[in-house]
Amino acid sequence: MRMLFALVALLLLGAARDPILVPEVSQHDIQVRQGFTGTELLLFGAILDPSGTRAGRDYDIVVVLKGPTQPIRLREKQKIAGIWINADSTAFRSAPSFFAVASSRPIGEIVDERTAAIYELGLNWLQLSPIGAIDPEEQARFSSGLVDLRAREGLYSENSKGVEVSEQVLYQARISLPSSVQTGTYTAETFAITKGRVIASATAKVEVRKIGFERFVAVFAQEQSLFYGLLVVAVSVGMGWLAGRLFALV
Questions:
Q1: Considering only CA atoms, which of 182, 121, 178 is closest in space to residue 151?
Q2: Which sign does the torsion angle of CA 16, 19, 22, 25 carry?
Q3: Least confident among 27-31, 38-42, 213-217
Q4: Could you write out the DSSP letters of every residue in 117-182?
Q5: Best CA proximity match to 193, nearest among 105, 122, 124, 126
Q6: Does residue 189 contact residue 201 with C-beta atoms inside 8 Å?
Q7: Residue-wise pLDDT tens digits, 179-191
Q8: How much is the pTM?
Q9: Residues 42 and 164: beta-carbon distance below 8 Å
Q10: Could you give phi then psi for residue 42, rounded to 5 degrees?
Q11: What are phi and psi of 104, to 5 degrees?
Q12: Which phi and psi angles does 195 have, rounded to 5°?
C-alpha cells in the first residue's frame, strides 16, 4: 500500500525532469535465531518518468547491497621449510562485512570504469581504505585477497544477470544472505543507468538482528566481556574434566 501511494504521488510530479526510482525490499527486518541457515532478499521496485511513461528510454538497473563496515587486518601466509607462517599483513580502515552486486547486464557494458569506481558497482571497484602508507601493488594484492576470501565465504558476490527488468518500468533482483552474515544495518542502493550515466538512485534499509538466546549471548559478551571470558574458560575446563572422567570409566 505504501508503495502504491508513492507511485501515485510520483506520477503527479510532472515538473521533475529526471526519472524517479521507487525501491522496496521483501524484508526490512531479518531475525537471526538458533538454526538460522540464511535467507534470500527480494529487491524490487519501479522506475518512472515524471509523466508516468517510459519516454522511449532504455534503462539498466544495478543493485548494491552492503553490510555494516568494520576495520580488518589481513595477514598473508607464506610457506617456509614446509610450515605455513604469517608473513606480510595490512589493515583496512573499513571494509563491508557483506557486499553483493546484481545488474541487468555486465557492468563493463553499462558504465565506464570511472563511473563504476565512483558508485562501487562491482567487486573490482570496491573501495577499501588501508591504514597508513602502502605500496599500490601491495594494496591491490591484499584487496584482491580479501575479496577472494569473502567471496569463497559467500559474503561477497556479483551477478551480471541478477536483475530482471520488465517493460523498462519494473525491476527485481534476488540476493542470498548466508548464515554467517553480521548483524547490523544493511543498505540496498539501486541505480538506474542509461547511456553510461546514472540518472536516478534510491536507498532502502534492511536490519539484521539476533533474537532469543543468540541475542542474549551477544549482548552479554559485548557488555560483560570479562565475565563472559571467565565463563567460557570455566565451561571449557568443566567440559574437559567431564570428558576425562567419562573416558576413565570406559
A1: 178
A2: negative
A3: 213-217
A4: HHHT-SGGG---EESS---HHHHHHHHHHHHHHHHHTTSEEEETT-EEEETTTEEEEEEEE-TTPP
A5: 105
A6: yes
A7: 888 889 999 999 9
A8: 0.74
A9: no
A10: -105, 120
A11: -80, -20
A12: 55, 40
